[in-house]
Amino acid sequence: MSDLPKNLKYAKTHEWAKLENDNVVRVGITEFAQAELGDLVFIELPKVGRVVKAGEQCAVIESVKTASDLFSPVSGEVVSVNEDISDAPEQVNDDAYEAWLFCVKADNPAELDALLDASAYGQLIAE
Fold first, then answer.
1. Exposed (0-12), middle (13-18) or buried (19+): which is 14, by Cβ within 10 Å?
2. Which class for 30: exposed (0-12), middle (13-18), buried (19 or more C-beta within 10 A)?
3. Are 65 and 93 spatial neighbours (Cβ–Cβ below 8 Å)?
4. Which domains does the chain have, with CATH numbers?
5. Is residue 17 within a helix (H) or strand (E), and if so which, with residue range?
């Protein structure tokens, strides 16, 4: 497993989150998650404008092995989705930390404090 980016926060459900300008949180799945899933074949992204709660299922990712739900790490409104990923989900397999999936304008960016840092997430996936 490669080194985990220290500038990200991690959910126990294997999403990563990066706080950007204007309380927008960029979301993707971790390297661990994509490795466990295998070759990705389809990603159903949330609709722009959808209001989500932290921990709410909002997207689905399918691989040749299985399908898995994705969860929003924060509460807020989905403000953008990565359309390129819909057309080429294998980009997530190529670089999970560059291939973001969707962005949520966080109602309360402090919700990110409930997520794991790189060290704690590394311990979680080592178990």
1. buried
2. buried
3. no
4. 9-106 (2.40.50.100)
5. strand 15-19
DSSP string, 49-77: T-EE-TT-EEEEEEESS-EEEEE-SS-EE
pLDDT tens digit at each of 127 positions of the chain: 458 999 999 999 999 999 999 999 999 999 999 999 999 999 999 999 999 999 999 999 999 999 999 999 999 999 999 999 999 999 999 999 999 999 999 999 999 999 999 999 999 999 8
Look up residue 79 and give its amino acid: V
**Contact call for residues 96 and 121 (beta carbons, < 8 A):** no
**Model confidence, pTM:** 0.95
CA distance 20 to 64: 32
CB-CB contact of 74 with 107 (8 Å): yes
The pairing of strands 67-71 and 76-81 is unpaired
